[in-house]
Amino acid sequence: MDTPDAAPAAIDYRLAFEQAPVGMVLSRHRIIVDCNLRVCEMFGATRDALVGQSFRVLYPSVVEFERIGKRMEPILNASGRYADNRMMKRLGDLHGVFAGETFWCHVSGQALNREAPHEAGIWTFEDLGSRRAAKADLTPREREVAAQVMKGLTSKEIGRVLAISHRTVEIHRARLMRKYTAATTAELVQKLIAG
Predict the structure, then answer these.
(1) Which long-range contacts (CB under 8 A, 24 or more apart) does 38-45 make?
(2) Is 157:163 a contact under the CB 8 Å cutoff?
(3) What are the C-alpha distances in Å from 34 to residues 27, 31, 52, 64, 111?
(4) Other beta carbons less than 10 A from residue 2's beta carbon
(5) What is the model's pTM?
(6) Which of 84, 98, 119, 194 is the most buried (most CB within 10 A)?
(7) d(CA 177, CA 81)
(8) At CA 139, angle to CA 182 and CA 57, rounded to 5?
(9) Are 149 and 173 in contact (CB under 8 A)?
(10) Nearest CA among 149, 162, 139, 156 for reference residue 191
(11) How far apart are the C-alpha atoms of 103 and 133, rounded to whole Å?
């Protein structure tokens, strides 16, 4: 048992970063400056292959990388924090297995400077698919709508978030329901999370 005057044990923050149960990345201007072992496992790449790369390599498309970057900027400006569920892309493992596979990922981050939110940040990544690839082939817009559906937003709310009409959202939602053979939104969300 600790005595009142016992000094707390020193914490090795580098070891804590490396062994964290979630993927962690330090970034500058959307470039990976450092990452932990869990990120390497999740995306199927070595640390050397990721450090110095743009986050773009982890997205299914350049369009999604740019669109999400623009969407998160005002939120980071306002609160300094951002979080969402999105499709990400594995680079593969040491044997090239899983290369290009997409999966649902929960991403959250903290900007170190609200006025310049992409200047420097700390990001966490959690694989929602547990090494299962997304089964349906989705367009970039369908992935964006799916991510908002997973948050429980209505078509009108999704339309406001994505700056598209709610009718367009309903078209994409209907396509998602067909692709995942889901009868209800709850079933769709469950199938999206499962991959």
Answers:
(1) 38/125, 39/125, 42/90, 42/105, 42/125, 42/127, 43/88, 43/89, 43/90, 43/91, 44/90, 44/91, 44/92, 44/93, 44/94, 44/97, 44/98, 44/99, 45/91, 45/92
(2) no
(3) 7, 9, 8, 22, 15
(4) 8
(5) 0.68
(6) 84
(7) 31
(8) 125
(9) yes
(10) 149
(11) 5
pLDDT band at 131 (very low <50, low <70, confident <90, very high): very low
Strand 81-89 relative to strand 102-111, pairing: antiparallel
- How many residues are recorded in the chain? 195
Mean pLDDT of the 105-127 span: 93
Tokens read off for 56: 């773009």
In 43-135, the DSSP E strands lie at: 81-89, 102-111, 121-127
Q: Which whole number is the average pLDDT over 154-163?
A: 90
